[in-house]
């Protein structure tokens, strides 16, 4: 016992050890963040200290004087030496004045982009905040003329580059998305090649009839070496007429068909569910109130309370059943609409196998059956059934396109002249993998997690291809080309219309020249994550850099002229200083 008592520590000693460990624990110090002007001044002072004529300091001594760790100072100097760019620029930005200028310029850009105005006023604000208005004229007239020179240069660049690239372009069939954007009571016709996102047409017209579409789109197709094979859009009559006149296949867009069903059912079913929930909550409150209510003693009052409670229990049960039913209608209709989007693919996304047109049609019919039955049970108005029928006609057109695509698919496979083993491998591995990779970025995160195992299995099988590497690459190229042929969305043109609408609000209007400039900037300057522009993907070759062309050819405004009142202010200021 004595030995056990000696060995066992008491609570006070344990508490003291715990407190000591907390006191001795080292806290991580916050890293010191210095601005570039401060760093530039420290480096200049360091160089002056180690280059003194009489009392030269060592690097460590100089760093100690400046209260900077020697390792930090050496890393700053090495970073200055290893920086890329012209020597003159590196030397300038290493000075205190250059670092101050860089600091003001970057902050001026950030302020302008995040909370500044656009157009000429935004440019004036940037020049003022950065201090460049001393060297560049910032009046409205000077900047208006400057932007006019930029527009002319951009238009010339787009016209010349498109003609040059079209000469070496290979002939191919393309799919174009068509839509209109309405501003100022005039439609803006927009046509975009869906694979490359290259804008073929963007123009304000008097109307959006089929004849107008053909009149504006035909010359653009002739300018480049392409054939319009497919047109994807909503079920607009003018666009369908244009597709027929240009001998192209019209593809009804999936989103608008789904949206018609949503407009017919979603709001009404949700309203019925809320009404049922509200009635159920009221019944619950009445039941709780009656149960807790105190009444006089006596058989008559007890019997009355039991009857009321019994009625409320029955009513609550009926309302619970009604609410459950309304909720089920809404959820199942919403799930049916989502399922239509999962069905509309050439492959079954859960298995990776090729679908058939008949199978897709049957699956569509199953979802429409669910939607119509629930709409009838919910007693939706006649207008909802009209919208459902309109969506049904759109899905019938989608099924017709799916049948056409599988005919094209069979002809494409026949032209490849594959062996039976290669054809099976193409159908089971190459095409599903190419299509899945094509749509992967557009899938929701939950769907990507669901189909990730399928993607990995297809990638493993493609590595075990029994033919040469060159043959495998050629088959993958053909698989990608075939996958790009199947289109079901015009989201590219819908997004462009949104951007044009914002630009129209920002500039208050869009004239013909400004619209052409925006089109050329979209085609030749905006780059994807892979670094390619829409023009590079469309023409399949590199082109000149638009911004570098502007730098080389466009003259910026000169230095601002000294005004008479500015000279007078300076003279008065000089006289006051002399008098003092």
Number of alpha- plus pi-helical segments:
23
Which structural class is indicated by helix and strand composition? alpha/beta
Instruction: Average the pLDDT over all residues and give the rounded result.
Output: 85
- The geometry reads as extended
Our estimate of the beta-strand percent is 5-15%
Question: Roughly how much helix do the residues carry, as a percent range?
Answer: 55-70%
Rounded Rg: 36 Å
Q: What is the end-to-end distance?
A: 96 Å
Instruction: Record the strand order, biggest sheet.
Output: 3-2-1-4-5
Q: How many beta-strand runs?
A: 5
What can be said about the biggest beta sheet? 5 strands, mixed
Give me the strand/helix succession.
Answer: HHHHHHHHHEEEHEHEHHHHHHHHHHHH
Oligomer: single chain
Stretches where pLDDT is under 50 for at least 5 consecutive residues are 1-23
Task: Compute the number of structural domains.
Answer: 4
In short:
The protein is of the alpha/beta class and 580 residues long.
